[in-house]
Structures are given as C-alpha cells and as structure tokens.
Please model this.
Amino acid sequence: MTGPHPLDADHEKRPLRIVHILRQPLGGLFRHVCDLAAGQAALGHKVGIISGIAEGPVATAMMAELAKNASLGVHQIHVSRLPGIGDLWTMGQINGLVTNMSPDVVHGHGAKGGAYARLLPRRKHYARFYTPHGGSLHYSPRSLQGRVYLAMERHLLRRTDGLLFESEFGRKTFEEKVAPVNVSHTVVHNGVTLSEFNIVEPFHDAADLVFIGELRTLKGVGTLIEAISGMGRSLSLRIVGSGPDREAFEAMAAKVPDHIRISFLGPMPARRAFALGRMVVMPSYAESLPYVALEAIAAGLPLIATNVGGVSEIFGPDSTSLIAPGNAYILRGAILRALADVAQTKARAVRQREYVRRHFSVKDMVQGINRFYRQVIDAKASDELAGRAASSVSSLAHGGQDRP
Model:
C-alpha cells in the first residue's frame, strides 16, 4: 500500500452521481465494480448500476450486496454477449435509465459495457469513462473478430472522456492493438481489502492443487489437465468455477490415469475455494489484472501462474517465477518443483503477500479512480467555459461589424 491519502478534493467537492454499466455480473470485472461502488458510496457519492441479469447463487448474492451501496438503484436488463440487432433495444433501455439517474459520470466496464456507455447520445452534463478489463484487447488483430472489435474500439475512443487501465500492460496493449491514447487516461491497479489478508488454512483433506476461475479455453484449464495427467506421482486437483467449456474439460479429466484425481465443484466464493487446495494454479493464456491472483496471494497461498497480462505487476520482484502460457510440459515442471521444495515455495508466498499488501489496496484503487473522475470533469468544464467565452467574443465582434 502507498499509505493513507490526505483529505483531497474528492472529499471537499459535492458528491458525484456515478453510473456503472457492465454486461454480465461475473468474475473479476464484477468484483471490481462491487468494490468500487462500495468505496464510492462510503465517500458519500451516489451510485447506480446497469447490468446484465445475475445468474447463480454467488452472483445473485453479490448483486444483493451491491444494491446496498447503490442509492441510484441496481437495474438488471437483458444484455447479449455478441453484438446484434437486439443491442438497439438495449441501448434504448440504458438511455432511459441513465437519463433518469442524471449522472455526472457514466463508467462502462468491459467491451460491451464500455460501448453502451459511450454510444449514449452526446450530452454535456456527464463525462464518459471506460475500463476495458481485457475484453476486446484479448483478440488478435489478425483475426476477423479481432479486426471488427478493435475497429469499434478505435471509433469509440473519439467518444471517450477518460480511459482507465487496471495495469500498465493493459495500457500498452491498447496502444499496440487499438491506437495511441489521445484522451485523458491513467493506470489504477485493482486492490484487495484488509480482511482478505487474513490467512486461509487449507482443510485437512485439501487437494494438492486448486484452480478457481471461468471454465473456458482462455483460462488454460485444458493445459492444466494435460500437465498433471503426465505426472508419475499421485496428485489431486479441484476445479472451482463454471463456464462454457466445462463439458470439454470434464471429458479430458475422465481420461487421466487413476493416480490423478480431478473434481469439478462449480462456482463458490474465492476464500472458501482457497481452503480446498494447498496451492493455487492460474494457467491462463491471457489476463488483465486478475483478482484471483491478488486474492490467493493475500490469503497466503502459494500461486503458480503464467506470465500474461498484468500478472508480472502483481508478482513484482518475484515475476521471474512466472511461466510461459499454453505449455503443459513447462507447467508440469513448475508444479513438481513447487511440490518438491515446500520451504522455498512458502518463502516466496510470504514475499509476494507483503508486496501485494504494500501496492494493491481497495482504498487506493477507489481514491485513484475518483481523483481521475474529478480531473476529467474539471477539464471538461474548463473546456466548455473556454468554448462559451470564445463564442461570446466572436458574437460581439460580429455584432460590432454589423453596427452602422
């Protein structure tokens, strides 16, 4: 952590009215919005949420908790994953909701939420912000989908007042794949709460490894199953989460040797899942700044992770321990080394925990984002005043020329 901030302009000015828009209440993006909304409400700001419909007990419970911090309301509407004609109807609903909430800030999260926020009719009374959270940036510019989505990002950049990145990696990727960032922008890391630094002790029957995340190819679950299936020793893995590729991963798991035990447990809160294993594995092919890494390290668990996205920013001085993604042989070796040298594995976990404690707090995240809102709003107001002044001078000059 960087230490407490002094009372700044955010406390001295009138409270803001802030609307967050997201496609689906799921994963790290939803966790980010929940923490941000709670922190903003605690500082006296009025917060509203427009989101897709929560599905499953975990997301439903988080949405109910989020509602306690949303004085402008939580509005769940149907949002499709892919672009389509239905987005016109959705945009109409969002426009009506935003108009009724009269915000100072509209903050879109993820590719779809960011598009909705910036495609709203142009109005002078609110500023539009966008946090990609990976989203379109995961696509290759060489693929057809990638070319379409990245072209949309370039178009929407012109309608963006402020651009927020969770990691320096995200900022660089945006500039490489989309365009040089010619609007106000900043990097504000995700953060974890003080209570999340309470150590999680594994259950007596904990598995050797636990994976926590969305069950889709991008998260590297197939590589993990392939890696442990080639081990000559007995080993157990618990997979926590849900997703579109679960059946494919279950089919892979059914073919592993008998001395390898893999179980699928469905979604649950991260801290409950951490106690199910002695070591967390995050074999992703791509990430932004993943909460599961921050949470696992804060909880004191050893973490094996791939060198993708902003993960190296989380690991700091220990980033050399990160491994290449998509390689079962390399992942198998990293797991075996961690299991063989328990003392070194635990020492690295202690170092990483202290690094995260110093540099990744929810308080710093909320204050950093709020300060950026204020900077952009103040600059926008100054530009509008300058524009009106210039218009007045022009009118006077024109009027003077018309006098006889």
About this structure: The two ends are 69 Å apart (CA to CA). The longest helix spans residues 362-402.
